[in-house]
Amino acid sequence: MGAEKKKIKLPVFLTKPRYRSRVASFSIILAGWLILEIMMHTGNLSSLFTSLLVPVCCYIVAAIGLNLNVGISGELNLGQACFMSVGAFTAVCLSGSMAGSVSSPLLRLILAMVAGAVAAAFFGLIIGIPVLKLEGDYLAIVTLAFGQIIKSLITNMYLGFDAAGFHFSFVDNKVELQPGGKMLLNGPMGATGTERISTFSAGVVLILISLIVVFHLMYSRSGRAIMAARDNRIAAESVGIEIFRTKMLAFIVSSCLAGAAGALYGLNYSTLVPAKFDFNTSILLLVYVVLGGLGNMTGTIIATVVLVLLPELLRSMQDYRMLIYAIVLILIMLLTNNETIRTWTMRITRKLRRQTNG
Amino acid sequence: MDESRRPVLEVRELGIDFGGLTAVNDLNMEVYRGEIVGLIGPNGAGKTTVFNMLTRVYQPTRGSIIFDGKDTTGCSVVDMNRAGVARTFQNIRLFSGLSVADNVRTGFHGRIVYSPFEAIFRLPSYRTKERLITGQMKELLEIFGLSEERDNLASNLPYGAQRRLEIARALATQPKLLLLDEPAAGMNPQETQELMAMIRKVRDHFNTSILLIEHDMKLVMGICERITVLNYGMMLAQGTPEEIRSNPEVIKAYLGD
């Protein structure tokens, strides 16, 4: 660097903080996608990692949705996984029943994801209408219960499809299919024989779409209303914001994203059991959101990737695997809440910002 | 009837009970267009309760509130704001996680409306309306001397600036009646002087009536055209600052026998 300070004129999306966070998220996703695609094509990616690509995308999308609900809207949701479940089983059933009529797997995947998102949004709507009218932690309690209800429902559901349409029963062996018919849901066995049509590229596109939706929503009239209702309910009402409607919007978009993510997840495996989306999965998603930072989408993406991959990377440590995983979690929590480290990172970012602004 | 002599707010025999306790009873008052009215009284007289009834945070037990010629029975807080009542709070209530600019932008929520779909798909209507909001937001920040703080978090502002921001946010909803709950609380005499000038400017510039609760008698006597005095939830006196100042009942309520 010379003595004279160089002023670099940067485009607006790099200088304004609100644009910068968006650019960061998008570049991380695109760079990751590019690198992984190249590695896959040159054969440098182990089969273990290749198998993790789609699930990671699904968890990222569900976590972004959850962050909208928990971080931006400030309503605790302990059942994000069950919205994934609704999306996944809707998608699996739809895709299975469309196998004969729609030949293009990509079109089927898109239709299944849309159906999964709509189904999850519908459940979000019927849960939200009574619960979000209340003030307090009721959403957490109800979503927690909803997760259990959905799990038991699907565990006991038998659904078959043949030329005459869908056949449905809550009792085993009651579903009688014509020749050529197919069982879509087998009670506790879940969905079996699903055609695996999910792809990593579809996952990346879904992440990008969910980021665009969430960012566009955040930086708009509705997004400001959602955050205002979170920060101060009484003041928000006093400037004409309808609390129920804004909370509802965040909750439905959140469950919608979880539904689409679940659809992608379900169509990535030939067998899918309802127990996959239990309370633990919901809590894991919440951990991704909290560690990534409430309201911080880039952080959510990084936290999800790290925390999904970490147990796999630690596989060589065998018995100590979960111990180290737990220690890492605790360390991250301590670090992100430590005052000294916080001021230090804030100083660094401020310095960087001043430099880019000239 | 002369337009300016039509009351924007009429309160008739207003009362509220909390359980067995009568907090406010038989309150009658009106605020005319473009008027600055003071609501004073000793601590616990029920002044903030009156504000909470006027904004329908509390539903009154008795009496009626007629705003802009319409009875407001059954209205919600949001309805009252849409009808044209805006307020500030005794203990400042800003949106602490939002920037100064976004705090004012939320004020336009009910005035410049577009749907979430327009936002998600970034339709042309989104852009024109956001531009409109940003333009008016900048004007308001300019008036309240907050332009420099635009991108700061509201919670990082000094106390006096937070009070000004709350007024700016309330004015963004384009109210016909602005309720100020102890605007000068915690301000030094210099700041109070500036506040008085600002309240007058707000009235002239935004063409709004103002009803304010205040303990600082210099401010109340200095800018209010009429004053209502509350004591133990009952109206004690009503009149011009001169009348109130010389009213023996008021002096007794404040100073005791």
Q: Secondary structure elements and their pairing?
A:
The complex is a heterodimer of chains A (358) and B (257).
Chain A: H1 12-15, H2 17-42, H3 47-72, H4 80-98, H5 105-131, H6 138-155, E1 158-162, E2 165-169, E3 182-186, H7 200-218, H8 221-231, H9 233-238, H10 243-266, H11 279-292, H12 297-313, H13 321-337, H14 339-357
Antiparallel strand pairs in A: 1-2, 1-3
Helix pairs in contact in A: 2-7, 3-7, 3-10, 3-11, 3-12, 4-5, 4-6, 4-10, 5-10, 7-10, 8-10, 11-12
Chain B: E1 7-18, E2 21-32, E3 36-40, H1 47-54, E4 62-67, E5 70-71, H2 77-83, E6 85-87, H3 100-107, H4 116-120, H5 124-143, H6 159-172, E7 177-181, H7 189-206, E8 209-213, H8 217-223, E9 226-231, E10 234-239, H9 241-245, H10 248-255
Parallel strand pairs in B: 3-8, 3-9, 6-7, 7-8
Antiparallel strand pairs in B: 1-2, 1-4, 4-5, 9-10
Shape field of chain B: globular
The CATH class label of the largest domain in chain B is Alpha Beta
What would CATH call the architecture of the largest domain in chain B?
A: 3-Layer(aba) Sandwich
- Residue fraction in strands of chain B: 15-25%
Name the average pLDDT of chain B: 92
How many distinct beta strands of chain B? 10
Compute the CA-based radius of gyration of chain A: 22 Å
Unreliable stretches of chain A: none
Tell me the CATH superfamily of the largest domain in chain B: P-loop containing nucleotide triphosphate hydrolases
Kindly estimate the percentage of residues of chain A that lie in beta strands according to DSSP.
Answer: under 5%
Tell me the number of structural domains of chain B. Answer: 2
What name is given to the CATH topology of chain A? Answer: ABC transporter involved in vitamin B12 uptake, BtuC
Oligomeric state of shown chains = heterodimer
The number of helical elements of chain B comes to 10
Name the average pLDDT of chain A. 87
Number of helices of chain A: 14
Main β-sheet of chain B: number of strands, strand sense, barrel status? 6 strands, mixed
- Helix proportion range of chain B: 25-40%
User: Can you give the helix content of chain A as a percent range?
Assistant: 55-70%
Q: Roughly how many Å apart are the termini of chain B?
A: 44 Å
Tally of distinct domains of chain A: 1
